[in-house]
Amino acid sequence: MANNIPKVPARLVLKKDENATELQRQQNLLSVTLAGMQGADILANRPPSPPLGATYYATDTVPPHFYVFGPAGWITLL
């Protein structure tokens, strides 16, 4: 699941057509990640036992963190 979060480089150093392809790939990864997100709120409001693979965005952490729920509980992705 951690591989779903796209790594966005500070600057793309590619040819024009490669830039468009790379940007589209990153947009697709981000869309898939955000589409699967279960919720966003403060960290204390995470559900205690959501379905496996559920994601959560904690808005009160610095910086904000993404979490995914796995067999061992909530795992920080970012």
Quickly describe the structure.
The chain has 78 residues and is α+β, with helices and mostly antiparallel strands. It has one helix at 16-35; strands spanning 37-41, 55-58, 65-70, 73-76.
Q: Can you give keywords for this protein?
A:
78 residues, alpha+beta, 4-stranded mixed sheet, 24% strand
How would you describe this protein?
This protein is of the alpha+beta class. The protein has one domain (9-76). The protein has 1 helix and 4 strands. It has one helix at 16-35; strands at 37-41, 55-58, 65-70, 73-76. Strands 1-2-3-4 form a 4-stranded mixed beta sheet. Strand 3 and strand 4 (73-76) form a beta hairpin. The radius of gyration is 15 Å and the shape is elongated. The mean pLDDT is 75.
